């Protein structure tokens, strides 16, 4: 067989992994410092053990780099890989159902890239990664995968979307994560405080902040502004230059500033569509659309994201243009008001055991526990009034709305298993719970609580029809 290209992993990959292993060894050393107090072993033993782990990891990665080779032509890709045990795989491009390309800042500097190939579900492996390969070879592989349907910005395409700065700004405002903000800056403070003493400066800032009501208001506004800037910067680095291109078989997405992502999702392998919005995103009518794909395996955002931030008013139009789903003028079923009792009963019994235990050991945190319980109860009650569902002979849609919002759009052909359950209280009120197992790797479970029993049995009947 004649191959057009023969290549190996770039040597930079080894340097990158040695650096990572060195960081891991430092972490292991700190972990052994804690274990040293429990098991009473010497510093020499600790350093020998950490050195052995580091050396083992370096040798293993070195052997993998040495043994790795990649050959391909227009039809087939041959991969040789392994550390101690080497194996060879032959993969036909027609058996590859999508890809995910990622290039960190180091790879971008040296014109390299890493490519994850998504294989058809009948294959023994669902994903294969080609790390630190020259960008020109990665582009060739991608062109062979999508040779029948490849589009670029100068050609015709079915759908083209680009993330605007306003959407990025709205997304940043609705993802204000104070905990992440303070964790980030606290980690910087902890590292720099060993060199520079910031304690006296922090005390001065604290005194000025608490000096008057005016200072507290101005300081709080400045803090919120900094958190907003932090969110904008974080989202810009992650989703900057986001664009989506759609053709007959694939959805292509490109995004990222420091780490660059290039993803292709095979439409035929999409088992469900998920629409999500957090508590704050609901106020700004902003949603995130992602897909559950048969061969995604990893649940990382780069494999599943379709729209990071999109206005609620545009979702139905997008679903029609991108997935061929017409969800206009649909009449959804709502839960019976009696489901409030079944939902509260489902979780209340656990508080009888958990709450007294927590209050006994953490008495000073009682207010936090009360707030958490109030949030859970609020979510349960609102779900009874806001949750709704819709189904036909082909499609099932479930909208779960409480503090946050989740919507699942599932084709019955992509349901692997379906289980209907009914406890005593549900039987009294004429409702059931339906557990849906979506085809995924691993399978994704979605539970529809407290829907009308007639509808539950109808859904089960449709599922059996599609699986006969």
Automatic annotation (TrEMBL):
The chain crosses the membrane at residues 12-32, 44-63, 168-189, 209-233, 344-362, 368-386. Residues 65-145, 388-451 form the YdbS-like PH domain. It holds the Pfam family bPH_2. Keywords: Membrane, Transmembrane, Transmembrane helix. This is YdbT-like protein. The lineage of its organism: Bacteria, Bacillati, Bacillota, Bacilli, Bacillales.
């Amino acid at each position: 067989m004649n191959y057009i290209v023969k290549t190996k992993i770039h040597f930079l990959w080894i340097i990158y992994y040695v650096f990572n292993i060195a960081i891991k060894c430092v972490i292991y050393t700190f972990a052994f410092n804690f274990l040293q107090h429990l098991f009473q072993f010497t510093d020499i033993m600790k350093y020998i053990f950490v050195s052995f782990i580091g050396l083992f990891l370096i040798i293993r990665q070195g052997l993998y780099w040495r043994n790795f080779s990649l050959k391909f032509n227009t039809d087939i890709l041959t991969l040789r890989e392994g550390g101690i045990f080497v194996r060879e795989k032959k993969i036909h491009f027609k058996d590859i159902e999508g890809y995910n390309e990622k290039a960190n800042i180091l790879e971008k500097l040296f014109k390299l890239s890493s490519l994850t190939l998504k294989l058809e579900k009948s294959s023994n492996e669902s994903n294969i990664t080609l790390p630190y390969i020259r960008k020109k070879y990665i582009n060739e592989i991608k062109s062979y995968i999508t040779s029948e349907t490849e589009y670029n910005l100068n050609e015709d395409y079915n759908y083209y979307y680009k993330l605007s700065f306003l959407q990025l700004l709205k997304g940043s405002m609705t993802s204000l994560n104070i905990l992440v903000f303070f964790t980030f800056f606290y980690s910087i403070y902890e590292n720099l405080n060993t060199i520079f003493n910031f304690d006296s400066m922090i005390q001065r800032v604290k005194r000025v902040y608490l000096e008057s009501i005016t200072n507290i208001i101005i300081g709080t506004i400045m803090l919120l502004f900094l958190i907003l800037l932090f969110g904008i910067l974080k989202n810009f680095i992650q989703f900057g230059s986001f664009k989506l291109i759609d053709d007959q078989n694939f959805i292509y997405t490109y995004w990222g500033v420091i780490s660059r992502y290039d993803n292709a999702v095979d439409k035929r392998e999409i088992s469900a569509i998920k629409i999500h919005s957090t508590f704050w995103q609901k106020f700004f009518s902003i949603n995130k659309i992602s897909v559950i794909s048969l061969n995604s395996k990893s649940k990382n955002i780069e494999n599943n994201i379709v729209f990071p931030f999109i206005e609620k008013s545009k979702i139905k139009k997008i679903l029609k243009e991108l997935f061929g789903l017409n969800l206009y003028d649909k009449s959804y079923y709502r839960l019976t008001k009696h489901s409030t009792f079944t939902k509260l009963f489902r979780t209340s019994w656990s508080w009888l055991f958990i709450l007294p235990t927590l209050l006994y050991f953490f008495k000073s945190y009682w207010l936090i526990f009360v707030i958490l319980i109030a949030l859970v109860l609020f979510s349960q009650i609102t779900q009874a009034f806001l949750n709704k569902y819709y189904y036909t002979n082909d499609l099932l849609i479930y909208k779960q709305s409480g503090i946050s919002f989740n919507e699942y759009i599932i084709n019955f052909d992509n349901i692997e298993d379906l289980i209907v359950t009914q406890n005593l209280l549900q039987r009294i009120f004429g409702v059931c719970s339906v557990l849906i197992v979506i085809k995924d790797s691993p399978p994704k479970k979605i539970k529809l609580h407290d829907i009308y029993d007639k509808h539950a049995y109808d859904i089960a009947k449709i599922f059996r029809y599609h699986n006969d």
